[in-house]
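Table S2 (text version). Query chain:
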Amino acid sequence: MPDLSTPAGWLPVVFLGLMGLAILAYVVLDGFDLGVGILLREADDAQKDAMIASIGPFWDANETWLVLGVGLLLVAFPLAHGPILTALYVPVTLMLFGLVLRGVAFDFRVKAHARHKGTWNLAFHGGSVLAAVAQGVMLGLVVVGFEDGWRALVFALAIGLGLPAGYALLGATWLILKTEDELQRRAVRWARTSLWFTAFGIVAVSLATPLVSPRIFDRWFQLPNLIGLAPIPLLTGLLFVLLHWALKRLPLPGDHGAWIPFALSISIFVLAFAGLAYSLFPYLIVDRMTIWDAAAAPESLSIILVGVAIVLPMIVAWNAFAYRVFAGKARALSYG
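Corresponding structure-token output:
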């Protein structure tokens, strides 16, 4: 590991942290609106409108974090950008197709004739599922270091099938926060179902990840690391128990506690992300390319950092403003 007291040592760590923050923000924020899209087929027509209304002011801004994360990868780690996106060409293409399909369906579902509205609702749902599955496959391929072979492919596909359950949990708990009456009660039921699929997925991935990477196995299970890292899985398990307990008691009179499931769901994702980040650090391509191997020159990173210091607070402020303005329950869609 390079000397972290020098710019060549600490600047790549700073940019890795910024890129990780952008990816985490994207997973949580775009995760809940992808989750709403995944759940869309389970609702009737009026409820579909309310579900879309709950994410309408936010979903475009949520995707800004994905652009920021990929942009940081491009400018801060240029030697890794090409190999990573080349290895992820197929799932990235499928993800972008899913996101574009969602965007088209979002607008067309309110402009098409009534007999075509169901088709666009289905397209919005399909785009959400496709984007979520593609992101899970991308994550799996990153963890195995883009290895070839059936074991790596099965691992990536397993995460691809598991991530939509996590997004559905985020989406359901978001709907608990933003909706009322029968749709809110349905969202509670959806959250209860998604909770156990998400728990099973996290446990399965946590057990399989050390098996597909000896280096990750050593990082987690050698002493004293095993003792120091034990709070992460223990806290994650506790959050699942608390979320299960909260969902059993909702909805409450006066809508009390409607925010708790969403906050607990976000906390679960944050802890899962922290465990993954620890497992992968300091590699961008596992066991092949570290952040220092891939980083741009310190002089370039210093200039880029100034730009990020200007842009990042603006993105945060805009998102905070949007969530503040559109706080409260979602209202019926209106197009004038």
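Notes on Table S2: Strands lie at 283-285, 289-290. The chain has a mean pLDDT of 88.
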